[in-house]
Amino acid sequence: MSASEWESLCDGCGKCCLVKLEDRDSGEIFHTNVTCKLLDIHSCRCSEYETRHDTVTDCISLNKENIRSLNWLPETCAYRLVEQGQSLPSWHHLVSGDSESVHSYGASLRGWVVSERDVEDEHIEDHIIQWVD
Asked: What span, in angstroms and rounded, lies between the C-alpha atoms of 44 and 28?
């Protein structure tokens, strides 16, 4: 699979851009309803995708080499599904032909998140959510 084909798998859900907290003792990952400051919370796309690592130094690029180790990705993540040899969901744009179907189906972050630009660091823990795919 070429790099552009790999990139085309992104369904635009935005879930990989959620701020996550890790318990230092247990290593447990907690998701929040707070997104990276670069995520456009309406389109669920990075506003500075090509240069995101310049601004957000801990942004993780999803690639064929690391996808299996990123256990915090949602079960519906197209990168995960393809790596596991599973089919893409009906709402995925490569199946439906419509990039808005991820949103109309309710599989994206649209409408239920806030940007980290609007949350003070000391209040991030107040935004921990239970992940439901």
From this structure: 25
